[in-house]
Amino acid sequence: MTDKPPQIGKISAEFFRSVIFPNLGADSQKVLVGPRHGVDVGIVEIAEGTVMALTADPIFVVPEYGWERAAWFAVHILASDAATSGLPLAFAAFDLNLPVSITDPELKLLWTSLSNECKALGISVVTGHTARYEGCNYPMVGGAMVGAVGASAKYVTPAMAEVEDQVILTKGTGIEATALLGVTFPELLQEAVGEATARQAAALFSQMTVVQDCRTAAAIGVRNRGVTAMHDATECGVYGALVELATASEVGLRIDREAIPVPESVSRVCGHFGMNPYHAISEGSLVVTCKPYRAQALLAALGGVSIQAAIIGEVTAKERGMVLVEGGAERELRHPGVDPFWAVFGELLAHHRKQ
User: Which of 34, 111, 145, 326 is the most exposed place for a label (fewest CB within 10 A)?
Assistant: First the structure.
């Protein structure tokens, strides 16, 4: 580790390996999958043959979205990670550390909206903490955990991809980065990229979830029956998710960059703000590895629920490395390290709130 200024967003893989991973509290044989960089969930045995997948994330609330829409997104950030386990969503705990400025009517609408979305997804809220504190501010207003429960033979993690699996991506790149800018700064986007593109960017908001993607994928079968790993492309986008999955599974990748979908609105918005769409946060984009003989069935299933998906590469042996193919040329596929979205979003949000 060095004394250089901390980066915005998730800690580095190096910091995780050297500080977090060696210090995980008490050992337990009930922990089947513990914390690993790039793995969305932990897996705990709760009874013979039954496991719970657990995930934790910030509660991300932007009042400018409207409380109901903000609550929908806050729940789906959490639910999406838990859903990548392939298990049914079950439980949640919320710790709301709110700014003192939130009024009781606003808090009532926020909480009832959180509850309503949990109910729609089959999630029961079992405990939590709700308070106002000095020093707390949007969008990060606490944290939460979501658990999914199911049979021990039915879960997958990003550490379970295998050589010769096909790599499939849903929706495309930069979904979240584009959508959040679209709904938070609609007038600015209209001036920058035109009314039609700004409208398309905002419309991506409803795609910022992989719950249905995961449920659809798991339904065709898991492990040797079909899907071997799922990982949503959050911070550091599609490239980050691909590298994290390959690293966790100790495999290589051969990815065709030209096969990766980039929606036109994403290309235009990311281009205007200087964000690489392959590096930008993309909640809603799911990376799936799947047995070759089930890949077409998975594409058909996703298409049947109107989720765009494409085969973008294959899993290879670790010694072959992570390869990105573009125009017939090969280069190393690397983790972006820093997501470009946070700096852009923070600067624009600060400017917006001063006006």
Answer: 326
